[in-house]
Each structure stands twice: as structure tokens, then as C-alpha cells.
Amino acid sequence: MSRNVKSGLIQCSNPINDESRPVAEIQAAAFEKHLPMIEEAGQKGVKILCLQEIFNGPYFCPSQDARWYDAAEPVPGPTVEALMPLAAKHGMVIVVPVYEREQAGVYYNTAAVIDADGTYIGKYRKNHIPHTAGFWEKYFFKPGNLGYPVFETQHATIGVYICYDRHFPEGARLLGLHGAEIVFNPSATVAGLSQYLWKLEQPAHAVANGYYMGCINRVGDEAPWGIGRFYGSSYFVNPRGELLAEASEDQDELVVADLDLDMIEEVRRVWQFYRDRRPETYDDMCEMLP
């Protein structure tokens, strides 16, 4: 029997671009805007859904404004708990990227995973943290300390890689070695320097590791920072590197694709990258400094 899993991605613009408004109000508006799109996914039969990076608010990292620390919350916490009933209602796994507060002054860029019965099953913390003009993430996030976990959900074994992580093939390979069938990459990336990589690196990860990827990017311009236009273009790619479904560059959108998980076995029998890898020759990769 074929293992076909209908999966979805939501790309969404931030509804409030006004720094004078309270952080909690901005977050509440973003959360509420996502709810009908999550319902739409459930009604369309989506079984695994991923939201964009820090979905319940703007991408605030162009600033170095301590007020945004107020956006952090425990994981699991209020946002995850609010989505648990929706996951259970639709029998839908939901990947929920939020700003995590572990304790006073310790914050992570995190994605929680809710299983299809509405239970929280774990989280991934973004490992690679950029710090450059417009992306001052080290001001807000500590590097992840949970490694590269995978989550055995009711519908598939999934992994998460967040935004800037996608530039690092090492973690992408570890997710495959840990058994991921689908890897989701929730992102916040703007037109310009890295846009040409958006449809280059992640299909390459899918091919090199023999799994599906779901790649999510928000849309629109976010004031007051003006670092550029978030260009959407969320998509699914299969283990052959073929795009299955793709969103527009400028619209709020739910992207849906049927992922045939049996293809993973089929592709890996042709491209035996797991059989032919030579980990005993890779010691320098861990020992050498840049």
C-alpha cells in the first residue's frame, strides 16, 4: 500500500507593521491571521503542515531592540497549546516555529512539533545563527543545543532545519541519517543576495539525502526595518530534486502537495549515497577549523 501523505506549507505576510503597537498585540494579530489558513489546510486533508519561521509575528532581527525579547515564550507554551486542538481536530501534524524562552535571558529560534492527535512531541532549535547586516540573530538567539532530532509522527518521520541552517549540508545529512522522510525549512529570507540559492540548495539536499523537503518563506515588506521584500516562493521538492508545488512571490498562500514516501526507497536504490558514503575518511571535517 502506497504511503502518500498530503502535506502543506503556509506563507503569510505580517498584518501589523507598526512599531508603536505592543509586541503582544502584533503577535496576536499574526496568530489570528494564520488560523483560517490552518483550517483551510485541515479541510483540504493536509496531514502534515509547517508554518513559517517565527510565524506569530514579524521577522524582528533587523533590529537590536530588546523589546522583542517580550515575544519569547516557553515551548511548549501558550502558542503551541493553542494549536494542539486544531491538530487533533484535523488529525494533522503541525510544525510550529516560535521564539522560545528557556529561562531568563536564554532564547532560541525554535520549531515545536505537534502530532496528529494533538500531543506535543518535541522541538528543534536552530543551530546556525547568522549575524550580519539586517540579520542580527545572535542578539536574539542562542545557538541550538538539541542536535538534529527527527520526530516519528503518526504520518511520517520528519525533521526541521530553520532558515540559515539550509546553507549547511552537514545537518541536512544528519537528518537523513536519523531517518527523516520529510525535512521542513521554515524561513524568513528577502530578495537579493541569497535568492538564487533558494531553489538550488534545498533541492540539492533532497537529492543528496533522498528525502522530501518543504521550504517556506514569508511574503511582503515589514516596516520599520525595510531590509527588503520577503519573496515567498514556498515549495515542495521530491528526492529526485523535482519541484512538486510552488507558491507565488507576493501572496498569502497555502501550498499543498501529495508526497509519495515510497519514492524514497525507490530513489535510494538507484542513488546509493548512504551505502557509498565514507565516514571514516571525514575526520578532518570535524577537526579542522576555518
Description:
- It is globular and about 55 Å long.
- It is an alpha/beta fold.
- The mean pLDDT is 96.
- α1 (23-43) packs parallel to α2.
- The chain has 7 helices and 16 strands.
- It has a single domain (4-278), classed as Carbon-nitrogen hydrolase (Nitrilase/N-carbamoyl-D-aminoacid amidohydrolase).
- It has a 6-stranded mixed sheet. It has a 6-stranded mixed sheet with strand order 8-9-10-11-14-15, with helices on one face. A two-stranded antiparallel sheet has the order 6-7.
- The termini are far apart.
Mean pLDDT: 96
Q: Name the CATH superfamily assignment.
A: Carbon-nitrogen hydrolase
Integer-rounded radius of gyration: 18 Å
Helix share, percent: 10-25%
Strand order of the largest sheet: 5-4-3-2-1-16
Structural class determined from secondary elements? alpha/beta
The CATH topology: Nitrilase/N-carbamoyl-D-aminoacid amidohydrolase
Q: Count the beta strands.
A: 16
* SS field, number of helical segments: 7
The H/E string reads: EHEHEEEEEEEHEHEEEEEEHHH
Unreliable runs: none
Terminal Cα span: 48 Å
Q: Give the DSSP E fraction (strand runs of 2 or more residues).
A: 25-35%
**Integer count of domains:** 1
Globally, the shape reads: globular
In the CATH hierarchy, what is the architecture at level 2?
Answer: 4-Layer Sandwich
Q: Can you tell me the CATH class?
A: Alpha Beta
Largest sheet: 6 strands, mixed
